[in-house]
Every structure is written in C-alpha cells, then in structure tokens.
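Model it.
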Amino acid sequence: MLTTSVALGGGLFAAGAAAAANTPASGVTSAIIQQDMVSETVTVKGKGDVNAGLFTLKTDSGVLQTYCIDFDNPVYTDSGAEYHEADWGASSLAANANAPMIRWILDNSYPHVNLTALAAAIKVDGLTPEQAAAGTQAAIWKFSDSKEVTLPDDNATKLRDYLIGSNNKGIAAEPKPSLTLTPDSVSGKSGSKLGPFVLNSSAGEVKLAVAGAAADKAKLVDKDGKPVGATLAGPIAKDTQLFLDVPAGTPDGAVTLNASASTIVPSGRVFMTGVDKFGKHSQTMILASSDQLSVSAAAKATWKQGKGALVDSSAKVECAKNGVTVSVTNSGDEAATVTVDKQQVAVQPGKTESVLVKVAEKANYDIKVSGPSGYTKDFTGVLDCKVGVTPTGAPTTPAATGTTTATPTSSHSGTPSAGAGQPTPATTSAAPGTGGLAQTGADSNTPLLAGVAGALVVAGGAAVFFLRRRGRHGRTTA
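Modeled.
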C-alpha cells in the first residue's frame, strides 16, 4: 500500500464536533495515582530535597507500581491523576539511548526482586522497602533524566551504584503491551475483508467477540482467510492480523470487534496522563510491577455498498518526529479529498496517505480530520516526549478538560471548558519520605500489597500517569 508523508506545522488546534463513533483506548486505560509512596527524601544536585521511590496506580482490577522517568514534571496525587498505558515511542524513551539500562534496572531491582535477594546481591545485611525504592529511583533518574542523587544512607547508595554499574548490560527489547488492537476503526466495501486489525498482547490468551446488530453478517478471520475462534491462545504472536469478512451484497452496517484478557503487565511499560480538569499534566512513569489485571480493547468496522470514496483515519504519537502522524485510508473506488488540520490531502482508491502534524512539546493538541459523506474524526492529546522541558505553571483559573491522552484518542465532541466556580488548584509540599506501602512486587518472592481492591478495566481502542516536594519532585495537589 502506497504511503506518502506531508508535514504540517502547529501545536494547538481548535476543538470541533466529530460524527464517527468514539472508541476507548486499548489495554490499561484508567489507572488512578494514589497518595502514598514507598520513598525516602534524597538530594538531587541543583534541585534540592525530593521524595524518591515507588508510586502506586490503582485500576478497577488491581494495582500497578511505577517509578518516575520525567523528573521536571510534577505529580498531582491529590487530584487523582489518571494514567494510561503507552508505547516507548510516545514518550521520552523514544530518543533515549539509555532505555535498555532502565528496563534492566526494573527487572533486577525492587519490587521485581525481593528485599532479601537484593540485599545479598549488593552484600549488605538488609534493605528496607524505602531504601530499595529510593536507590532504584535514583538509578533510574541517572539514565532517564541525567540526575545526580545523594541518598540518605549507605545501603540505598550501594544499591544505586550496583544498578548503574557494570552489571547493567541493558535489555534492548521494548516489553509487550498488555493488550492493543489497532487501528480503532476501519471502513470498507461489503464483499471484502475489512482490516487488518493488529493485535498485540502479553497475555496467555485473548478472548475475541464481534458485537453489534450486524454481528451475524461479519466473520472473524486471520490473514489467510481462516476462521478465528472466540479464544486466541498465547503466546500472542507480534502484530497478529485479524480481519472481518463481509459477504458481497450485505446491507450497509457496522460491528465492534472486542478483545479482552487477564495478564500481568510487563515491567518497563510506560504510563502517561492527559490533562486534568485544572489543565495540569502529570509526569510520565515506568512500570515496575503489576497485579494480574483485566484489560480490554475494541475497534469498529463499517462497510457500505455502492460506488464512492470510503475513508477512515488513525493517529500515532511519534516522539522521534516531534509530532503526531495521521494516516488516512480510502477503501472506496473513487478518489477522496480529506482535510487534516485544515490541509487538504488527496487519497486515491485503495491507498493511504500519512500526514505528520508537528506539535509543540508539553502542548495539548486537537487534530481534526474531515472527508467525504460527512466523515469527521478528532485526535486529541498531549505531546510529552522530552525530559528537562518543564510544563507551564499552574493556571489561575481552571483549564479546559476532555479526552486528552499521550496516545491519540478519537473523539466526537469538542473539549468542554471547566464550569464556573470550580476551585483553583492548590500546591502543597510532599509528605515525609517514608511512604505508606508494605513490601510489594509481581513475582512470587515479593507479594503484592494486600488489601487493595480490584474489578475490571473498561473496554478500550488505541493506547498511562506522577510527585514533587521542596525541589522539582514534591507532591502537588489540586
């Protein structure tokens, strides 16, 4: 399939109405940051005293534990910043040659490795959870933000030095996502295979279902046209392709392809936020450990009969290109003129055109796509690709809110402003650096924190979230 690229300038885009259905994002889509940490107070050169350690994100089905990889951004714990899972390419790790070293730390330190084994590895009598978390965070900051950290005790310092020393050979491969199904929508003519939908997952198995009034008209098949059952056994092959086969003559219709799984999210996955109701964006995190979570994804397929253009679009944050790539596909039999952020692009039948929309760092974006037969779709988010770029200060009045994520999210409606009379966000210093969590972890040697409830992460369609103190990293409240 021929693909061309067109570069567009700009950073902020006016919100607009969209007619196409909004599909939720994939994988872990809603993880709320908790106020307690496992941490110690450390001194960062040039920044002062900060809390360093483990954060907890809570989903409806369990908890995740994360470290910071975005030192200069604050974390808004008291306003319950909402995080979602993302790829390295949508974060500062896209351009960070030290990303493999960070992943090695996560797999070889607390809480993935229990405290007894970790103390033996660095030849000390013992480690507290706070020492282990602070030493691990200090090591990560060395590679994520080039920060020099002075730790309050010898054991935490020895752990930090061990993690950044010659033992660290790096782990180059990016971990698998918990569950992704992309793109979030496709269109085509009846009498053809609609897709491909690309599935990736760390789960042992993925359950699949076709839903909607026309579900009996579309058959789920693989790339060779063979039927696919209700359960796809793992391990899931990278970039597994799925299609919906719609017989010729089938009346115009649409269905939703749903995927769901239960899995431990692999350490090293990135978690990011959008913008909260006060216009604030919390720092990016990286996963250290995970409960067994319920995750899901969804994508829509639409088909029509007759002649004419038939377009659909998807978007992907590309930090290496400083923007968002919007891809427009024409599955019809006539050429289509499509507008992407006010720039017109001609898309020939059976072709895809890709448009790179340049976006300012740490800026909200709202990219509107429109085409023939009333087609419209919005992609909104925040570009959060670089370390050392501090976002703008706290607004004096509440900022706009909406569906804004670091991985592009399609939406049908504009971004509403916060209502009059909402409180202005306040800022407080962080709590003392001892934290309130027990020993945690995802493997059998380090049991996860007891007493944290869980249920189900809601269904999703393309695509997670940080603390500040007396320096740049203390806790901020809203």
